[in-house]
Amino acid sequence: MNAIAETIAKVEPYTLLRASLALFKKPPAELDAGQLQRVERQARSEFDIESRVLRSNEAAGVIVTDEELDAAYLEVRGRFDDDGEFDAALARNGLDAERLRAALYRQCKVNTVMEKVASRSPEVSEVEIGIYYHTHPDKFNLPERRAVRHILITVNPEYAENSREKSLQRIQELQFKLQRKPHKFEDLALKHSECPTSLQGGMLGVFARGTLYPEIDEALFAMKKNDISGIVETELGFHLLQCVEIHKAETLSLHKAAPKIRQVMQERYRRNCQRSWLAGLSRE
Fold first, then answer.
1. Suppose 201 and one of 5, 89, 186, 206 were both cysteines; which one would form an S-S bond, judging by CB atoms 3.0 to 4.6 Å apart?
2. Per the similarity annotation, which family is this (predicted)?
């Protein structure tokens, strides 16, 4: 029996898989020995905590409906293209459909209990929101930010079509098209950009000064809204930029900041309530 099989035999398989994906973003079979030991410790700890949760008085009246369980099962199943791939993945991790449903039932029940406990947390008051706002002024002074799209043509000498010369030629052709039809930026990004953001029409996001590559940063913050840059070269290759929106620097008012402050503080109260409750659970 190899190390993976031995570990699966000793630790609840679904908890082991969940810990592996959380810690290393890959299943147990792809871990090295050190990573597997860390995942095993994490899984054992999680399973122990969950077992204490399920033995608690709060768990006694909790019911997981068939609809809730079916939704959880279908969410996992939906990550795979077909039943064969799904069944093979389960088998590699010591699971089958029945064991997966049992593990999901357990997880759903634990989640419901923890939500029940979190609901006991106190509500955040207006006074607390005001105190937070006035004692954290740096959090509400927003610098100027710019929304930007880009088209990237990479440079990679290992591929003829991505030699520096060929890549420069391709970006120049796109630049010429945009000079005539700037409204086609999204379409051209979708068709030609070699960045994953091509699927979003080249949208990189909203950035403050100093957060992007220096060459992009310098060009972007010299542009006006809707401007399209000249060719910008970085270590990735060649870019064309479009300044989509300019968000001026501002200080958020208490009125505008209050919903986010309430959300952050309420979530903190909920976590603290759960931690205190968990700490008081018996290990028996």
1. 186
2. Belongs to the PpiC/parvulin rotamase family.
